[in-house]
Amino acid sequence: MVLCFFDIQNIVALRATCHHNATLTDSFLQRRRDRILRYFISDVPAFMKFMQTSNAVISGSSALRLILAVADTTWPMSDLDLYIPLSSGPSATEFFHRFGYDIIPYPPPKTKYGSKKVRSVVAAVQGSRKIDIVLSCDGRPILPIFQFHSSVVMNYFTPTTIFSAYPALTLQFKGLINPMACTRHHMLPPRTMRALIKYANRGFEFASSGLAWTCTENHTCAQTFECPLRARTSFDSACLNVSFSSPISSSDLTPCGVKEMYGWLLGGFHCREQDREFSPYVFYTPLSR
After folding, report:
1. How many Å apart are CA 5 and CA 68, to the nearest integer?
2. Neighbour count for residue 222 (Cβ, 10 Å)
3. Angle at which helices 44-54 and 19-40 pack, to 10 degrees?
4. Total number of domains in the chain
5. Which of 36, 136, 167, 169 meets the CB 3.0–4.6 Å disulfide criterion with 174?
6. Computed from CA positions of residues 184, 186, 190, 192, in that sequence, does the dihedral angle turn out positive or negative?
7. Residue 88 CB coordination number (10 Å)
8. Highest taxon of the source (predicted)?
9. How far apart are CA 13 and CA 16, in angstroms?
10. At what angle are helices 8-15 and 19-40 packed, to 10 degrees?
């Protein structure tokens, strides 16, 4: 199918052309989503229902699979990163136990999940399949995503939505190293290096400044969207927010995260003046009904 060579931006553009193409692309995205979920849980509707009731999102490599073209995602599917509120921990354990998974807590420190917004991580393991269940410190599992090692993994999907914080760079296989992932001495810890190497082996290039990806005359520090010092929100024009319909007929199945807006600043040094450093932050604000 020709859609296998389309990334999410091209799919969205095709979707807007007519009702027939909207139906075609929605069905294609549903099949891609279902293929990911079915690899880990055979009952896809049950998995989606669990995600909705627990307010869970899926990030990491699996989210990239829905954003990049199928032809560009040649790495094997072996693990899943599931982000849930702390209060949903017991229901998650029960759900994955029901499908034959063993639950194994990660010992401290939290290995590759070093975000301050992460309370704990457990692994649901079944043979070669592994699901990392990441419990956020509060009821907002999306917040840790903006503290990931780089912009290439600042993406997530729910049963009915896809989000990417830096789609323009990600679709070019380029990424910003997140200053939040560095030590206080501005060094990359071993877990961050391992993560960057993994994605470098998948064809991604990384830089610590937006200047690396834009012409000097087109880059204004703290204003250009590719600059780590640009204050961002999850609904600004540089983000990608895609909603696609679900084949499940249920009034309870609604997109996760649409009732809140998230904001962040990666921070770091000014692009041209290394003595000017900006502190990072992440926040959320409820949206009025």
Report:
1. 9
2. 14
3. 90
4. 1
5. 169
6. positive
7. 23
8. Eukaryota
9. 5
10. 140
